[in-house]
Amino acid sequence: MKELPILFSTDMVKALLAGRKTQTRRMKEYPVGSVLWVKETFATFEGAVGSGYIYRADDTHTIPIELCTPDRWKSSRFMPRKAARIFLQVTDVRQERLQDITEEDAIAEGSRGVGKLCTRADACFCSVCSFYAYSKKNLCFRAYWSKLNAKRAGGIYAWEQNPLVYVHTFKNITEEYKSESH
Prior knowledge:
Strand order of the largest sheet: 1-3-6-10-2
Low-confidence stretches: 114-135
Mean pLDDT: 81
Radius of gyration: 17 Å
Number of helices: 4
Largest sheet: 5 strands, mixed
Helix content: 10-25%
Strand content: 25-35%
CATH class of the largest domain: Alpha Beta
Distance between the termini: 11 Å
Shape: globular
Oligomer: single chain
């Protein structure tokens, strides 16, 4: 199996850890069968308790951040493979226009805005993307996509451009993969 890195935001790592995220849309295609090691925001530590990594997506840390290296939190872009703790296997890939996302797919993307902390009759606050989503989870996904991608590459990945994306469905294989000592 081919191993490839994939970046996820802290909120999406939390969705992965909670088992809510089983799909991602990307401009790049990851082949079916590939094992994706998740790159996430992390910090390294060394001290009397040993050395290792902590992850921003964890709500509680057993190692105080003060014991971490001077840089503290490091961008997921710089995470080495040896620090990876989440492994996903691609089970399906298809192409579609970004705006063709269904509500079911938005849920698989980790959206959970509808019904959470409603402040108006027609709007709900999405705790994943920190935006207001109007009546449908795919609008919550739209807000999150825009937050991450609107300015990338001069705006060509913006929701309004409706780019052609690869839709990857995956399963979390962390436990099996780690037990095989990769």
